[in-house]
Amino acid sequence: MSLVSLAFDTGLRRKPSGIIGHAVKIFAAGTAVWTIYAAGFSRADVLSLTITFLSLMLVLAFLLITPTAKSRTDVVPWFEWIGAGVALVTGAYFLTQSDAIAVRITLLSPLSIYDVIAASSIILLSVEAMRRTVGLGLTTIVLLFIAYNLFGDAIPGAMGHGEISYRHFLDIMVFTTDGLFGVPIRVAATYAFLFVLFGTTLAKTGGSDFFFNLAASLTGSTRGGPAKIAVISSGLYGTISGSPTSDVVTTGSVTIPMMKRLGYKPEFAGAVEVAASTGGSLVPPVMGAAAFIMAEYTGIPYLDIAYAAIIPALLYYLPIYLQVHLRACKIGLKGLDKDQIPPVSRTLRTGGMFMAPLFVITWALVEGYTPTYAAIYGTLSVIVVSSFRKATRLTPSLVFDILSDTCMKTVAVTGACAAAGLVIGGITMTGLASKFGTLVFLISGQDVLISLLVAAGLTILLGLGMPTPSAYVLAAVLIAPVLKGLNVDLMAGHLFLLYFAVMSALTPPVAVAAYAASALADAPPLKIAGAAVKIAIGAFLVPFAFVYDRALILEGSVFEIASAFVLVAIGLSMVVAAQEGYVKGPIGWPLRLALLAGGLVVIFLRPMLAGGL
């Protein structure tokens, strides 16, 4: 096992058998029912709901996730029951104290010994849960932040801070909404959970099969058809899964072997799947959990974020699709045989109804409903349309599986969000964000382009081995103030950071999505990651383009928006042709370099003419 994989390894999903297995699934399904009620219909205060949600998820983390990748997955050891019990007792304590917590004065109202014990316990439980679910890499970062909070007063110079006692640390971290029970966990308990429920319901009723068949019907007969199927189906599935890794293993199990059989090299087949899957979190109307955190953190309505993301998402997939086509032409590949391609008419007739839930979610957001209710309405519409056909109709056992699976899938998201909350609390306590901004300004000299390059690199670095929500939160807290100080637009700046937080999933050396694809492709993960970076070139150029030209995020006249889109699309096409060394035939290095330089000029032509670059 490599050091990289060891450092970012997580526990395995337990599948206990017998009465214990049934009991855990019942607990998970019950937690899901409560979370749906709490998110959409409860009138209880947010703090109580957040405390209850985190406690229930910590119980599941100890019962469902093994301590290491070598642990047994068929039994729940006795010590795991102790961890689950402590999580329940601690949650019950905070729930009984929620009214007092809501009215207490931070740093003035003293903490009792029971407060200290309960707060210490829930932090320890959360750290262990994040280690199991998102790996040692993120856990180490959180522990370093905690150490900085407690001992940073010993650091000389600007990076030091005033003395913070242990009770002061617990007061901010646990007894306010600036730390563990802050925005990230609230997002996990509402938007993220309900959209995972939507995606699980859609997949269980046959929606994911429909999207794959639709992609096959539309592109299967063209050159490199299977790879194009991967691009479209993974993008569509990614909009409902929100997880690059789960998308890779779900759609990649079909598309990667299909691409290899057609003649693509294993690393290229894996890279196409990784690039297409990763971008799913950037596709409206259902983007990943990080987009919901962005809405909550910035105060920008989620609908506005979804609108702004439309053109960048199209520009993300354009070079991927074009590169797949050019590679197929270059090595002489053909499409699938006719008998392997489902007819469009049959595909739409048997599954076209699954387009309706996406329209319902879009309608709900346009009408001004919150993302919470948009997800609820989307899930209800899946239930309605699935009832039209016997093969897709929900049964009580299937409903039970959907509820329990949704809860189990959200455990990892909760671990990541708990980590993000601890980091935010630590940064708030120490004022690290402003110090970090000073450091970036020293490197960039307050030059916007250099600052953006530094911001992109740091966001990818912070996101190595992390789930996208955690990567975005770190970037938003540490780097966004720098962009604000340079007068970068709020929407453009945070969408810029979101893009590079997402891209950390495929960027070496810790490309978690590439590691997921390596077993399916039977190729080294770092080779897959390197090829994926090349294929996803649009994701590394488009964010710079929309920061300098906000027409790309739908700010401007119709002509400005259309001209910006066309120019960037042409420029990206030129860059892809330069990368592949092929247009209608092979091209030499002089022309490739000319295409690369010309493509970059065309992408940034409007900002250059306007004097903004």
UniProtKB/TrEMBL annotation:
TM region positions: 20-40, 46-66, 78-95, 101-127, 134-151, 183-203, 268-293, 305-326, 410-433, 439-464, 471-490, 496-516, 528-546, 558-577, 589-609
Xref: Pfam families: DctM
Topology in the lipid bilayer: Multi-pass membrane protein
Domain of life: Bacteria
UniProt KW Membrane keyword: yes
A GO cellular component annotation in the UniProt record: plasma membrane
Localization: Cell inner membrane
Signal peptide extent: none
One Gene Ontology MF term: transmembrane transporter activity
Function: Part of the tripartite ATP-independent periplasmic (TRAP) transport system.
The protein, known as: TRAP transporter fused permease subunit
Source organism per UniProt: Pacificispira spongiicola
